[in-house]
Amino acid sequence: MTVSRSLPHEYFVLDVNSNLGPVVAVIDGRQARASVVDMNGRRYSFAGVAGRDENGRLDVTSLRRGQWIVAPNLVYEQA
Q1: For a Cys staple, 68 with which of 14, 25, 57, 64, CB 3.0–4.6 Å?
Q2: What's the whole-model pTM score?
Q3: Given CA atoms 66, 70, 74, 76 in this order, what sign does their dihedral have?
Q4: Residue 15 has what pLDDT?
Q5: Using one digit for the tens of pLDDT, what is the confidence trace for 24-35?
Q6: pLDDT (tens digit per residue) in 3-58
């Protein structure tokens, strides 16, 4: 996936309806659950932490197809 750095990261943020499963990581005091469900009922699995570019912005170019950011900087991918 090629994404311009000029696109706001908000275009890649998943609107989560619920968190499911066990806590798989604690990152900056925030619990990352094994999976989340979006507002349309689609399920996503925890994939890691979003990187930041040289300016401190979320680096959306590092996301692969089907990956989304769950605020503030967790990455989930469609299960």
Answers
A1: 14
A2: 0.81
A3: negative
A4: 85
A5: 999 888 889 999
A6: 445 666 667 888 888 999 999 999 888 889 999 999 999 999 999 998 887 778 78
- How far, in Å, CA of 67 to CA of 27, rounded? 18
Bond into 8 cis (ω within 30): no
- Evaluated on CA atoms 59, 41, 44, 16, the torsion sign reads positive
- Token pair in block for residue 1: 């996936």
Question: In the block, which residue shows the tokens 């998943």?
Answer: 14
What is the domain partition of the chain in residue ranges?
Answer: 9-78
- Which residues make beta-bridge pairs with 46? 76
Instruction: At 20, list the tokens.
Output: 């499911």
